[in-house]
Amino acid sequence: MKLKLVITLFTVFFGTTLIAQNLDSIKTELERDYNASLSLRQKVMPTINKYGYKSKQMDSLNSLILNFDSLALGRTINIIEKYGWLGKSKIGHIGNQTLFLNIQHANDKNVREKYYPMLEKSAKTGESNLSDMATMKDRILVENGQQQIYGTQRDIEGKYFPINDIKGLNKRRRQVGLEKLKVNDGDLRQAQI
Fold first, then answer.
1. How far apart are CA 114 and CA 21, in angstroms?
2. Is 0.85 topped by the overall pTM?
Protein backbone atom coordinates (compact mmCIF):
# COMPACT_ATOMS: atom_id res chain seq x y z
CA MET A 1 0.00 0.00 0.00
CA LYS A 2 2.80 2.42 0.93
CA LEU A 3 4.70 1.47 -2.21
CA LYS A 4 1.68 2.38 -4.37
CA LEU A 5 1.43 5.75 -2.62
CA VAL A 6 5.14 6.43 -3.14
CA ILE A 7 4.91 5.49 -6.82
CA THR A 8 1.82 7.66 -7.29
CA LEU A 9 3.46 10.66 -5.59
CA PHE A 10 6.65 10.11 -7.60
CA THR A 11 4.66 9.99 -10.87
CA VAL A 12 2.64 13.10 -10.03
CA PHE A 13 5.72 15.07 -8.95
CA PHE A 14 7.84 14.21 -11.98
CA GLY A 15 4.89 14.45 -14.36
CA THR A 16 4.17 17.96 -13.08
CA THR A 17 7.86 18.87 -13.33
CA LEU A 18 8.03 17.64 -16.93
CA ILE A 19 4.93 19.63 -17.88
CA ALA A 20 6.41 22.77 -16.30
CA GLN A 21 9.69 22.22 -18.18
CA ASN A 22 7.74 21.70 -21.42
CA LEU A 23 5.77 24.88 -20.84
CA ASP A 24 8.99 26.83 -20.22
CA SER A 25 10.48 25.55 -23.47
CA ILE A 26 7.21 26.24 -25.34
CA LYS A 27 7.15 29.78 -23.95
CA THR A 28 10.75 30.33 -25.10
CA GLU A 29 10.01 28.89 -28.56
CA LEU A 30 6.92 31.06 -28.99
CA GLU A 31 8.75 34.19 -27.83
CA ARG A 32 11.47 33.44 -30.39
CA ASP A 33 8.79 33.10 -33.11
CA TYR A 34 7.18 36.37 -32.00
CA ASN A 35 10.47 38.28 -32.26
CA ALA A 36 11.39 36.74 -35.62
CA SER A 37 7.94 37.51 -37.06
CA LEU A 38 8.06 41.08 -35.78
CA SER A 39 11.54 41.58 -37.24
CA LEU A 40 10.39 40.40 -40.68
CA ARG A 41 7.20 42.44 -40.65
CA GLN A 42 8.98 45.62 -39.56
CA LYS A 43 10.80 45.50 -42.90
CA VAL A 44 7.59 45.65 -44.96
CA MET A 45 6.87 49.39 -44.97
CA PRO A 46 10.51 50.46 -45.43
CA THR A 47 10.79 48.01 -48.36
CA ILE A 48 7.54 49.26 -49.92
CA ASN A 49 8.57 52.90 -49.45
CA LYS A 50 12.03 52.33 -50.93
CA TYR A 51 11.28 49.87 -53.77
CA GLY A 52 7.49 49.77 -54.21
CA TYR A 53 4.84 47.20 -53.41
CA LYS A 54 5.36 45.26 -56.66
CA SER A 55 9.17 45.22 -56.50
CA LYS A 56 11.39 42.12 -56.53
CA GLN A 57 12.63 43.19 -53.07
CA MET A 58 9.07 43.10 -51.75
CA ASP A 59 8.45 39.76 -53.46
CA SER A 60 11.56 38.40 -51.77
CA LEU A 61 10.46 39.71 -48.36
CA ASN A 62 6.96 38.27 -48.87
CA SER A 63 8.51 34.89 -49.65
CA LEU A 64 10.55 35.03 -46.44
CA ILE A 65 7.45 35.95 -44.43
CA LEU A 66 5.33 33.20 -46.00
CA ASN A 67 8.05 30.60 -45.38
CA PHE A 68 8.49 31.72 -41.77
CA ASP A 69 4.71 31.77 -41.19
CA SER A 70 4.39 28.23 -42.55
CA LEU A 71 7.08 26.88 -40.22
CA ALA A 72 5.73 28.81 -37.22
CA LEU A 73 2.22 27.58 -37.95
CA GLY A 74 3.41 23.97 -37.94
CA ARG A 75 5.05 24.46 -34.54
CA THR A 76 1.94 26.20 -33.20
CA ILE A 77 -0.43 23.49 -34.39
CA ASN A 78 1.77 20.86 -32.75
CA ILE A 79 1.63 22.78 -29.47
CA ILE A 80 -2.14 23.30 -29.59
CA GLU A 81 -2.83 19.68 -30.56
CA LYS A 82 -0.75 18.45 -27.63
CA TYR A 83 -1.63 20.99 -24.91
CA GLY A 84 -4.70 22.88 -26.10
CA TRP A 85 -4.81 26.66 -26.43
CA LEU A 86 -2.33 27.63 -23.71
CA GLY A 87 -3.28 30.74 -21.79
CA LYS A 88 -1.27 33.63 -20.40
CA SER A 89 -0.92 31.98 -17.00
CA LYS A 90 0.93 29.04 -18.59
CA ILE A 91 3.07 30.63 -21.32
CA GLY A 92 2.88 34.38 -20.67
CA HIS A 93 1.35 37.19 -22.68
CA ILE A 94 3.84 37.00 -25.59
CA GLY A 95 3.56 33.22 -25.88
CA ASN A 96 -0.23 33.41 -25.89
CA GLN A 97 -0.19 36.30 -28.38
CA THR A 98 2.07 34.23 -30.66
CA LEU A 99 -0.41 31.34 -30.71
CA PHE A 100 -3.02 33.82 -31.96
CA LEU A 101 -0.73 35.48 -34.51
CA ASN A 102 0.53 32.21 -35.99
CA ILE A 103 -3.02 30.89 -36.44
CA GLN A 104 -4.21 34.31 -37.70
CA HIS A 105 -1.42 34.37 -40.34
CA ALA A 106 -2.30 30.92 -41.70
CA ASN A 107 -2.92 30.88 -45.46
CA ASP A 108 -5.76 28.41 -44.99
CA LYS A 109 -8.95 29.84 -43.50
CA ASN A 110 -9.89 26.36 -42.30
CA VAL A 111 -7.05 26.58 -39.78
CA ARG A 112 -8.62 29.68 -38.22
CA GLU A 113 -12.07 28.11 -38.25
CA LYS A 114 -10.75 24.97 -36.55
CA TYR A 115 -8.89 26.72 -33.73
CA TYR A 116 -11.12 29.75 -33.20
CA PRO A 117 -13.40 28.00 -30.68
CA MET A 118 -10.35 27.23 -28.53
CA LEU A 119 -9.21 30.87 -28.66
CA GLU A 120 -12.74 32.05 -27.87
CA LYS A 121 -12.97 29.79 -24.82
CA SER A 122 -9.54 30.95 -23.63
CA ALA A 123 -10.44 34.62 -24.13
CA LYS A 124 -13.72 34.29 -22.29
CA THR A 125 -11.85 32.93 -19.25
CA GLY A 126 -9.31 35.77 -19.37
CA GLU A 127 -6.46 33.54 -20.54
CA SER A 128 -6.27 35.16 -24.00
CA ASN A 129 -7.04 38.65 -25.26
CA LEU A 130 -10.65 39.39 -26.15
CA SER A 131 -9.32 41.69 -28.88
CA ASP A 132 -7.50 38.72 -30.47
CA MET A 133 -10.73 36.74 -30.35
CA ALA A 134 -12.60 39.63 -32.01
CA THR A 135 -9.94 40.04 -34.70
CA MET A 136 -9.97 36.36 -35.64
CA LYS A 137 -13.79 36.27 -35.60
CA ASP A 138 -13.93 39.24 -37.99
CA ARG A 139 -11.39 37.66 -40.33
CA ILE A 140 -13.35 34.42 -40.44
CA LEU A 141 -16.55 36.32 -41.19
CA VAL A 142 -14.95 38.41 -43.94
CA GLU A 143 -13.32 35.34 -45.50
CA ASN A 144 -16.76 33.74 -45.65
CA GLY A 145 -18.34 36.77 -47.34
CA GLN A 146 -20.13 37.98 -44.21
CA GLN A 147 -20.08 41.34 -42.44
CA GLN A 148 -17.58 41.71 -39.64
CA ILE A 149 -18.69 42.46 -36.09
CA TYR A 150 -15.84 44.46 -34.54
CA GLY A 151 -14.42 46.44 -37.48
CA THR A 152 -10.92 44.94 -37.33
CA GLN A 153 -10.51 43.98 -40.98
CA ARG A 154 -9.48 46.26 -43.82
CA ASP A 155 -8.45 45.72 -47.41
CA ILE A 156 -4.98 46.47 -48.79
CA GLU A 157 -5.98 50.11 -49.36
CA GLY A 158 -7.08 50.53 -45.75
CA LYS A 159 -10.82 50.50 -46.41
CA TYR A 160 -12.93 48.62 -43.89
CA PHE A 161 -14.75 45.52 -45.05
CA PRO A 162 -18.53 45.76 -44.43
CA ILE A 163 -19.49 45.95 -40.77
CA ASN A 164 -22.72 44.68 -39.26
CA ASP A 165 -24.69 47.15 -37.11
CA ILE A 166 -22.46 50.22 -37.30
CA LYS A 167 -24.47 51.94 -34.53
CA GLY A 168 -23.51 49.26 -31.99
CA LEU A 169 -19.92 48.96 -33.22
CA ASN A 170 -18.17 50.97 -30.53
CA LYS A 171 -20.06 49.23 -27.74
CA ARG A 172 -18.91 45.87 -29.10
CA ARG A 173 -15.36 47.16 -29.56
CA ARG A 174 -15.26 48.49 -25.99
CA GLN A 175 -16.40 45.10 -24.67
CA VAL A 176 -13.34 43.43 -26.21
CA GLY A 177 -10.80 46.17 -25.45
CA LEU A 178 -10.57 47.74 -28.90
CA GLU A 179 -10.25 51.49 -29.48
CA LYS A 180 -13.24 53.55 -30.52
CA LEU A 181 -13.91 54.11 -34.21
CA LYS A 182 -16.06 56.87 -35.58
CA VAL A 183 -18.20 57.17 -38.66
CA ASN A 184 -17.71 60.35 -40.64
CA ASP A 185 -19.64 60.88 -43.90
CA GLY A 186 -20.21 57.13 -44.12
CA ASP A 187 -16.48 56.41 -44.06
CA LEU A 188 -15.22 54.56 -41.01
CA ARG A 189 -11.98 55.97 -39.62
CA GLN A 190 -10.05 55.34 -36.44
CA ALA A 191 -10.88 57.98 -33.88
CA GLN A 192 -8.16 60.31 -32.70
CA ILE A 193 -7.43 59.86 -29.00
1. 28
2. no
